[in-house]
Amino acid sequence: MKNFILSMSILVSICFALSERNVSAAGRAEYAKCAIMTFEKEYQQTTAVFVGEVLNAKKLGDKRIFEFRVKKYWKGIAKRKAIVEVNEYARYQAQFQVGGKYLVFARAQEDGKLFDRRCSRSKDLDGYGGELQEDLKKLGKAKTFKD
Fold first, then answer.
1. Spatial CB neighbours of 47, under 8 Å, sequence gap ≥ 6
2. How far is the C-alpha of 52 from the C-alpha of 67, rounded, in Å?
3. Where do the DSSP E strands lie in the chain?
4. Model confidence over 64-89: pLDDT tens digits?
5. Which residues pair with 102 in a beta bridge?
6. pLDDT confidence of 2, banded at 50, 70, 90?
7. In degrees rounded to 5, what are phi and psi of residue 53?
8. Between the N and C ends of the chain, which has fewer C-beta atoms within 10 Å?
9. Taking residues 53-63, what's their average pLDDT?
10. What DSSP element (H or E) covers 14?
């Protein structure tokens, strides 16, 4: 029985070590807990801040790509539609759902594409109370598209 337990322990250790080797540093960072940035720091580091409704979503590998209809915006938006990518992992799935309305704090990748990250201040407009209202108040008057 001792040999069986020892063998199983070694096997589990080997499997864990091999799986850890295949997880990138970025992947490990995504698994770690994170702290939500202050509003000021998040606003400063984001490329685009807007309120939008998710029109559709598609999955490409580890990415989920969302198309938003922009309702109002504070920075970084030039068109009525915005595309935002989210990297998904085993322990993190994108919060956005088709039909949902969100306050989005998105950053730009090197190629200019917008992305949302696990620890951003992006919020479901229907799911948050005081914190959402505080962020909207700090953002102030939004810009809208003229019809």
1. 75, 76, 106, 107, 108, 114
2. 9
3. 48-60, 63-75, 81-87, 101-108, 114-116, 123-124
4. 899 999 999 999 999 999 999 998 87
5. 52, 124
6. low
7. -110, 135
8. C
9. 94
10. helix 2-21
